[in-house]
Design brief:
The protein has 2 domains: 45 residues, Pemi-like Protein 1, Chain: D (Ribbon), CATH 2.10.260.10; 35 residues, no CATH class. Helices cover 25% and strands 26% of the residues. It is built from 2 helices and 4 strands. It has a two-stranded antiparallel ribbon. Strands 3-4 form a two-stranded antiparallel sheet. Strand 3 and strand 4 form a beta hairpin. The longest helix has 14 residues. The model has no long low-confidence stretch (mean pLDDT 82).
């Protein structure tokens, strides 16, 4: 079940502290607002860090042990290749 929050005059909502901690969401963190047929969804966007392994292959890290979509990993690898 979800948590109920209120919208203030400027259209802001406060994400409860326990949810921010669960997501690892800190001051300055970025959320993507995704429209859905039922309303909206918020997704925590995490920057991808690409390093080169000893064997020369790229290694993608997202700063958390959460599962990430394959598309995000592939996009991070492409950005790494483009920077070389």
């Amino acid at each position: 079940m979800g948590t109920t929050v209120k919208v203030d005059r400027q259209g802001r909502i406060v994400i409860p502290q326990h949810e921010r901690e669960r997501l690892g969401l800190h001051d300055g963190g970025v959320l993507e607002l995704i429209p859905t047929p039922e309303g909206i969804a918020l997704e925590h966007l995490r920057p991808a860090i690409v390093r080169q392994a000893r064997d020369g292959l790229p290694v993608v890290a997202f700063g958390t042990s959460d599962t990430i979509p394959n598309d995000d990993a592939v996009a991070a690898i492409h950005r790494h290749r483009d920077q070389r």
